[in-house]
């Protein structure tokens, strides 16, 4: 099986820049967004079988540690007793932790091919959090050199290779690295070093890193954010176009007695209840967990944490399918002050996000608007503006509700040079014929007074057009701005 870069990823649905897709691997398809639970072969807290039951089709393990600890691996799937997709990472994380590693890129690539991984990664040099731009530049140069060298070293055509992007918080370096790596034949791209920023709650830094890399990565390649596994912030990363995650956090948090929920992480000692009904929480109370020996407690907490991540991935995929990813971001914005700032950061980029949102979506339940513009609203206003300018109407009738159409004279109602628009708290003005279409019909907004400036920006039309309305207040407001206004009688 030969797997060509740019031919293994297929996108099926979108919401904002988030996508549901599938990646072809030699072991079958992987639906994205997906998260690889990281398997620690020395001490795995959650059985691989349980990981499978929770719906994870792919796992990740560290090839460098396997190599250095001298494991007789053979086939990695048999070794892990996991018949799904196995990804490995190189020694990059260890390099970040210990400064250097004791293996060459050639050894690591050869080893990944020998143990038959489905997704492998070259040996990159992580930037991490550093005050030295000079150092950051060196990590980017080393990563790029290895990326080029790896092309010669790979022997197998059926392994998907990840081309990492480094640069840390130096966005010009991230951009430079993304541009260079995206030019090389990799199947997947990996954005490196977010872990330290995550630990410091510096979400905006990571969002900036994603945004700038995504500008240069072809849409035909999935993007992996290395080492990001907190559920509350995952939807934000997905909304900017991250398709893959890996996480050891479920186990690391468990070792530290931390209990994940979709909104926040609790310390077990503070919990009077377990606000979850996974297999673990169904069978145990918080007190019972606390009184267990650590080893047993860790295992159970890890299983709970992983099930929260599994649920979160499902929730994200469902939101993309239903076109409501924005609502999930809104939902999460109060989870943490830095997530609130991340939401505001996204709000400022709503126009950019709107560009990637589809103009229709398979199944939408309810979109809620809270006074600020959500991307779907921005996108739809653009469509209204285009519609109005193409129609070149001679008369524009503004109604405050759609029932008022009944009081219009027939020669206005059916005249193709008369445009009838209805006031809307969220969209400003909506052409009568667009009231039942997505996303107007699906948007529940609070009744607010129409904003005359917003209205006039939508109906940017010729002076010669007669604007008519029954609404007294609107009539006088329009009179102040436009010449050709008529008040219709409501009888
Ligand atoms: Zn639970």
State the helicity in percent bands. Answer: 40-55%
The CATH class assignment of the largest domain is Alpha Beta
Q: Could you name the ranges where pLDDT drops below 50 across 5 or more consecutive residues?
A: none
Per the CATH scheme, the topology name of the largest domain is TIM Barrel
| Order of strands, widest sheet | 6-5-4-11-10-9-8-7
Please report the number of helical segments: 21
Number of domains: 2
Extended strand count: 20
EC number: 2.4.2.48
Catalytic activity: guanosine(15) in tRNA + 7-cyano-7-carbaguanine = 7-cyano-7-carbaguanosine(15) in tRNA + guanine
Domain tRNA-guanine(15) transglycosylase-like: 18-337
Organism: Candidatus Marsarchaeota G2 archaeon ECH_B_2
Structural commentary:
The longest helix is centred in the middle third of the chain and has 29 residues, at 294-322. Strand 1 (9-15) and strand 2 form a beta hairpin. The chain has 2 domains: 9-356, Alpha-Beta Barrel (TIM Barrel); 369-487. The strands form 5 sheets. It has an 8-stranded parallel β-sheet with strand order 6-5-4-11-10-9-8-7. A 5-stranded mixed β-sheet has the order 17-16-15-19-20, covered by helices on one side. It has 21 helices and 20 strands. The protein is an alpha/beta fold and 491 residues long. The chain is elongated, with a radius of gyration of 27 Å. Zinc ion (ZN) is lined by residues 276, 278, 280-281, 304, 307. Zn(2+) binds at residues 276, 278, 281. Residues 18-337 form the tRNA-guanine(15) transglycosylase-like domain. It catalyses: guanosine(15) in tRNA + 7-cyano-7-carbaguanine = 7-cyano-7-carbaguanosine(15) in tRNA + guanine. Its cofactor is Zn(2+).
């Amino acid at each position: 099986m030969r797997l060509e870069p740019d031919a293994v990823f297929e996108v099926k649905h979108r919401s904002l820049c988030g996508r549901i897709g599938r990646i072809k691997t030699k072991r079958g398809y992987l639906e994205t967004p997906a998260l690889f639970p990281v398997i620690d072969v020395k001490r795995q807290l959650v059985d691989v079988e349980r990981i499978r039951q929770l719906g994870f089709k792919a796992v990740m393990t560290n090839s460098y540690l396997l190599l250095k600890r001298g494991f007789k691996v053979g086939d990695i799937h048999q070794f892990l007793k996991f018949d799904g997709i196995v990804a490995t990472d190189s020694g990059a994380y260890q390099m970040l932790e210990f400064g250097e590693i004791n293996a060459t890129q050639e050894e690591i690539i050869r080893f990944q091919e020998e143990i038959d991984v489905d997704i492998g990664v070259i040996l990159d040099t992580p930037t991490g959090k550093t005050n030295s731009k000079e150092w950051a530049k060196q990590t980017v140069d080393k990563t790029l050199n290895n990326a080029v060298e790896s092309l010669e070293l790979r022997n197998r055509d059926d392994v998907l290779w990840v081309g990492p992007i480094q640069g840390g918080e130096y966005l010009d370096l991230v951009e430079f690295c993304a541009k260079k790596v995206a030019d090389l034949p990799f199947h997947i791209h990996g954005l490196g070093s977010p872990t330290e920023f995550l630990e410091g709650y510096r979400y905006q830094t990571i969002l900036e890193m994603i945004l700038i890399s995504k500008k240069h990565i072809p849409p035909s390649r999935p993007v992996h954010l290395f080492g990001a596994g907190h559920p509350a912030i995952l939807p934000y990363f997905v909304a900017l176009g991250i398709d893959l995650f890996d996480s050891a956090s479920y186990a690391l948090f468990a070792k530290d007695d931390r209990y994940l929920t979709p909104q926040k992480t609790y310390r077990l000692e503070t919990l009077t209840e377990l606000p979850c009904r996974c297999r673990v929480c169904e069978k145990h109370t918080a007190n019972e967990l606390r009184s267990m020996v650590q080893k047993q407690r860790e295992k159970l907490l890890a299983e709970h944490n992983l099930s929260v991540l599994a649920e979160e991935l499902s929730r994200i995929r469902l939101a993309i399918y239903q076109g409501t990813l924005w609502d999930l971001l809104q939902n999460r914005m109060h989870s943490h002050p830095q997530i609130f700032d991340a939401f505001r950061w996204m709000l400022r980029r709503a126009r950019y996000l709107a560009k990637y949102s589809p103009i229709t979506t398979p199944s939408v339940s309810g979109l809620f608007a809270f006074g600020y513009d959500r991307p779907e609203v921005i996108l739809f206003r653009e469509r209204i503006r285009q519609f109005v300018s193409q129609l070149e109407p001679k008369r524009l009738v503004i109604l405050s509700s759609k029932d008022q159409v009944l009081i219009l004279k027939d020669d206005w109602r059916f005249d193709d040079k008369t445009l009838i628009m209805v006031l809307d708290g969220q969209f400003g003005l909506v052409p009568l014929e667009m009231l039942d279409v997505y996303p107007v019909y699906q948007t529940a907004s609070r009744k607010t007074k129409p904003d005359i400036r917003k209205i006039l920006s939508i109906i940017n039309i010729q002076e010669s057009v007669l604007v008519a309305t029954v609404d007294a207040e609107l009539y006088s407001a329009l009179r102040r701005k436009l010449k050709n206004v008529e008040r219709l009688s409501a009888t």
